Amino acid sequence: MRYTTVIFDLDGTLLNTLEDMRDSVNYIMRKYGFPERTLEQIRQSVGNGAGVLVERSLPQGKNTPGFEEICEEYVQYYQEHNLIKTAPYEGVTDMLRAVTASEHKAAVVSNKPDENTKALVRHFFGAYVSVAIGERPGVARKPAPDTVRQAMRELDSFPFETVYVGDSEVDLKTARAAGIDCISVAWGFRSRELLEEAGAKTLITRPSELIKLV
Fold this sequence. Notes:
The chain is α/β, with parallel strands linked by helices. Helices cover 46% and strands 16% of the residues. The chain is built from ten helices and eight strands. The strands form two sheets. The chain has a six-stranded parallel beta sheet with strand order 5-4-1-6-7-8, with helices on both faces. It has a two-stranded antiparallel ribbon with strand order 2-3. The radius of gyration is 17 Å and the shape is globular. The N and C termini lie close together (7 Å). The relative contact order is 0.18.
């Protein structure tokens, strides 16, 4: 066994959450009279947390009057509407079943708000993932290594036996910062070309490929 522990990103890695995020952003855009965002615009804006997604979606970004309140409203609306179109990518549930059946420990670390992260992981993957950590006040989000290191502590795992699996350049930076290996996935929110430009060394195109690498 090469690794004992696999830590996963959530959005774009395990779950296709893009349409629910787009619809939640556009609810906010309509409410405040701003232009709605396309799916591709949302795709390019995710990865750094809800606040950054809202900032990138608003024409004036953080300079928008009431920005903090708008962010809070987005988070609340999304929390209540995040199971409408969201679903695991094809093959992900089977992959998690196989990974945990082979006695690997599994966790999810995301820049999605902590409550959202825990709820989604519990709903879709509760049988396979024992630790789920999202963004919360006072803790640096990815690409800082803080949340990944917390997951390793909770799983009683060491960096040399842990691998991080994600779909973005943020995940590559996170793994480097935490001193662990990274496996990038090509089915998520970033293109293969972007991942390779960001330094991806190991890149898979189907969830089933992960089983052979861990």
